[in-house]
Amino acid sequence: HFQVHQLPSSPWPLAVGGVSFTLLAENQGRALMLPRQIYGNPKISICRDEYDPVMFSDADLRRLAAEVHANFEKNTPGLRVLELMYTCERSIYIVLEDHVILNQVRDKVPGFIGNCFVGYLSNRELHRPSW
Predict the structure, then answer these.
(1) Residue 58 resides in a domain
(2) Which residue of 53, 67, 97, 130 lies most exposed, with the fewest beta carbons within 10 A?
(3) Is residue 131 part of a domain?
(4) Does some domain include residue 9?
(5) What domain range includes position 110?
(6) In the chain, how many domains are there?
(7) Considering the domain boundaries, does residue 13 fall inside one?
């Protein structure tokens, strides 16, 4: 996320390295880097006591991702976590497979992971190039 004093003249590229981005003037507010997400169940919290979201290290994030993956395999079989993203706002995004209907599983998935708020996305919502 960065700001410029003046937008460059168009046409602008629609993607950098195949990843879409948005340019906005300062008076248009801040654009969200990720699409709107579906929230998990706030009554389900995992990895609560082991992590301090202010001090996540690379090793902590790797361990957290492994624990989240194991938790999903045990408690929500059939839901495959494709990616776990930790944002600068200290929230977590979980990317699930495209066939998952997020509104139908939101009561079964954690609303908090490692004391961070969690949002869920499907892979197609990120509009990334095919792997």
Answers:
(1) yes
(2) 130
(3) no
(4) no
(5) 38-126
(6) 1
(7) no
- How many Cα atoms within 13 Å fall on the side-chain side of residue 46? 20
Cis, bond preceding 11 (omega within 30 deg of 0):
yes
Asked if 109 and 120 count as a contact pair (C-beta separation under 8 A), the reply is yes
Rounded to two decimals, the pTM is: 0.71
Tens digits of residue pLDDT in 28-38: 554 556 667 78
Contact 98, 124 (CB under 8 A): yes
Dist CA 46 CA 96 (whole Å): 17
CA-to-CA dists, residue 49 to 15, 46, 60, 113, angstroms: 39, 9, 13, 10
What does the mean pLDDT of the chain come to?
A: 81
The Cα 33–Cα 124 span in angstroms is 15
Is beta strand 81-86 parallel, antiparallel or unpaired with respect to 116-122?
unpaired
- How many angstroms separate the Cα of 6 from the Cα of each of 10, 26, 27, 57, 63? 12, 9, 11, 36, 42
Give the pLDDT confidence of 46-93 residue by residue, as tens digits: 988 877 777 788 888 899 999 999 999 999 988 999 999 988 788 899
